[in-house]
Amino acid sequence: MYYETLILGLVMGCIYSATALGVNIIYGIMQIVNWAHGSILMIAMFIVYGATVLLGINPYLTLLIAVPVMFAFGYAFQDIVIRPLYLRERADSNPVGLLLCTAGLGIALENIMLMIFKSTPRSVSMDISLTYISIGFGRKLSLVKLIGAGIALLVFAIMWFYMNRTYPGKALRATAQDREAAQLMGINVLRYYNIAFGIGCALCAVAGVIFATFYTITPSVGTTIGSKAFIILVLGGKGSVGGCLLAGLIIGLVEAFGGLFFDSYTGQMLCFVIFALVLFLKPNGLFGKKV
Q1: pLDDT band for position 201 (50/70/90)?
Q2: Whole-prediction pTM value?
Q3: Is residue 287 part of a domain?
Q4: Is 217 in a helix, a strand, or coil?
Q5: Which of 65, 177, 248, 285 is most buried, most CB within 10 Å of its CB?
Q6: Which has the closest alpha carbon to 11: 127, 123, 143?
Q7: CB-neighbour burial class of residue 136 (10 A; exposed 0-12, middle 13-18, buried 19+)
């Protein structure tokens, strides 16, 4: 029983980490908290549902649709809406407008989808939806969750390569470290802000595709799932990609073992208890750098 719970916690931790990676990238580079993160994830889940039901596409192949669409949306939203606000508020130490902007986007997206699809729960079914595979010691685990964890780890590997081995990735890191110095080196900071926000939304779409394969889809689902992204952001350290993965694993294990020893609601509550304790004892996160 403990072995199965451990594996389930690690699998869900990987998926939660992928959920938080997008908001972590945006904050680490732009110093902006994307409060619309959960709503963007919800939009991606509805894209999966629509492509699967209307077009008969395999849910995993909808990554080829959802990721480019959400990247383009994020790039355009940053360029058209956030950029003017940033230029107006960059000298302000407390840019409230940017926070309200992303929060307003999240509320708008959720209510638009609620008007269109109502609150009726939807789900995506596949031939492997009810398939369980052996993980040893006579225990089994859902195949779609294992595939989701594999996709999450692949995304982390791709992002590590992109950020450390490509020029755009290095330019993003330089922009995150010192935007003024990056500008002096010829980096178009505002353009890379667009790219960063686009990447954050694209990563959110990946998480949406993963969750759509085993999670009920409703217009409010982003609030439920997205809350863990912010817990992981704080726990792992704002801007720390490696910390994001480790924090996701911690949250997955806490939730799994909390559900085992108590119940699922207590497991969820323990995640927020950890969130509050980290904010109080180590505001920079377990793996974040002091500022």
Answers
A1: very high
A2: 0.91
A3: no
A4: strand
A5: 248
A6: 143
A7: exposed
Residue type, 257: F
The whole domain housing 126 covers: 2-222
The tally of domains found in the chain comes to: 1
The CA radius of gyration of the chain, in Å to the nearest whole number, is 19
Q: Contact, 237 vs 109, CB < 8 A?
A: no
Question: Helix (H, G, I), strand (E, B), or coil: what is residue 80?
Answer: helix
What does the pLDDT read at residue 217?
Answer: 94
The answer to whether the beta carbons of residues 47 and 122 sit under 8 Å apart is no
Q: What is the mean pLDDT of residues 251-263?
A: 88
Residue 285 lies in a domain: no
Q: Is residue 234 part of a domain?
A: no
Q: String of b and e for 203-214 (b: at least 16 CB within 10 Å)?
A: bbbbbbbbbbbb
